[in-house]
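Why show two proteins at once? Because comparison is the fastest way to build intuition. When a single record is shown, students tend to memorize it. When two are placed side by side, the eye starts asking what differs. So, the first record is below.
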Amino acid sequence: MLHIEENVSLASLNTFGIEVKAKYFVSIYNESDLLELLKLPLWKSQPVLILGGGSNILFTRDFDGIVVQSCIKGLEIQEENESEVWLRAGAGESWHGLVMHCVGKGWGGIENLSLIPGTAGAAPIQNIGAYGVELKDVLESVDGVHLEQGTHLHLSAEECQFGYRESIFKHQLQKIFFISSITLRLTKKNHILHTEYGAIHDVLERRNIRTPGIRDVSDAVISIRRSKLPDPAELGNAGSFFKNPTVSDEVLERLKRAHPAIPYYPFDNQQFKIAAGWLIEQCGWKGKRIGSVGVHVNQSLVLVNYGRANGKEILQLANSIQRDVEQKFGITLKMEVNIF
């Protein structure tokens, strides 16, 4: 039975800890709940926001509509053989909890994505990634409901149209698709470990681990993330606020002439990715605080709420950073966080 609440605080449902309210709020525990909601007159008369863990969102005002929180849980093996397992996860499952479950079972593929906040259902939207691994590398399919048609939809990984922090869910299916579950294809043996990132390699070296397993890699990633990123429960933030920009080889050569130390690495089709955190730091923003908002002292990509900020103050800070990076480097930083 659906329970629709009114005038609900969202402060505990967004990792920035911004105090805003939803005009209407409803939790969805299965697709039947959602199909019931779609039939109500209220659904057709109000704006809709689907909310997962609230870890990639910045509220700048109250939401004058229906906030739908995905609470669909469950982990279920769909298929397995000697070397692989196909695991289905409900959209409301904690992403890090899912990773820890897989590491505990000895299933490889997502250990580099440890400690990323949010839910399993939100992971395909951003095509989350870290330390050389992206969700698209292991995702088999996505299931959900087309909100306009009221029908179940199954999408293969190819149909999700993944790119760097991109997917079909941010374009053609934006606001009209509700993800109910994802299925991952993971390895049970002969794991392909990604330890090439310097930070992971350094941690393993310090721990004298010469032949790491998936748990070793996961532990290293967790250690790195905890050393760089603040815990949202202690300091409001949404992780990386900006995407790493991609540039052509021509633009890269121009940047290297002016800034020989600029960090970069090859991406796709003669494109190169530039470290956004470095750009921000070079503009003097690292560790800077303005009132109740600021840039984290250990990671320039992370904007933080020191406790009493509103969303507009954080957005103003982000806009100031964008302006300074554009003026100094001629690069426009794009926000990774969704603004409402």
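Second record. Ask yourself what differs from the first in the token line.
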Amino acid sequence: MALITLRQLLDHAAENGYGVPAFNINNMEQGLAIVKAAAATDAPVILQASRGARSYAGDIMLRHMVQALTEMFPDTHIVMHQDHGNNDATCLSAIRHGFTSVMMDGSLEEDMKTPSSYDYNVEITERVTKAAHAVGASVEGELGVLGSLESGEAAAEDGSGAEGKLSHDQLLTDPDQAVDFVLRTKVDALAIACGTSHGAYKFSRKPDGDILSMSTIAAIHEKLPNTHLVMHGSSSVPQYLQDLINAYGGDMSQTYGVPVEEIERGIKMGVRKVNIDTDCRMAMTGQFRKVATERAAEFDPRKFMIPAMDELERLCRDRFERFGTAGQSHKIRPASMDDMAKLYAKGALDPKVAASRAA
């Protein structure tokens, strides 16, 4: 059995001190490249689909594509995760279509543009968690609004991104509020706001503590040592991929992503899931442009896709190695979703907070 829940994977990651990249997918080529990299490095992997991906490919196609990947790579443990769910229906329909994990992003209202109230976030996340846990599926919640500490604005990705100016308080998750949120909602993982953002244009310079608040991650982990933390918007926007795109007709302005070494620091502070999408898009797009430029007469899509898949596979291998995910898949002993549902029903998987730290 290769398809597992997020909770199972992140529990194992916490016990063994590693992080897991969560790669967004939309099509077969992305899925193949990512899981080939996972299999080659003996790494478990999170494949996640946004609402935009579900609209693009369709739930049935995504479900069967992931199922095919589990059959092709039976020794690789895969989580099928809904990214940035906006309401109960989005999350529960994902579970009905075979997703083993969902994110309920209650940091924004249902339009995924308007920052929500704390009470709204707690209420809807708690509701989704209760329903998901009843069938053994995992839930990731979000507290704080994803966006730039430099500009006070958020970039949109697949329709998810706050509009207007955001306050400093909105852009950084409050550690004390995080304790209350986790205990009330019983989420399996918590996405936090620390200055990361969607898209390629995250920072105008290599980030330091003023615009990428690793101290926020440390403070939350101090109060929630047993909660799996998630970094969204954590593509590194590698310079070599910017250069590749621009060398073959692209027009990307100089930009900076989240340095991999900072993510490695985050993993030591309790970050267990790291969301990566932009890097994957850039890897494939750079090769599309290269083929189109160097072989202008080419019209076979496979001749574009094969080098693009190879570039994406190289990127994913690097992240598995850097995050400590490599070499871990064969160690995991998966449980069924029915077994997970029984554990949730017993309260065996409820959040545990060290009393001295949560006081």
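One difference worth noting in the second protein: The chain has one domain: 3-340.
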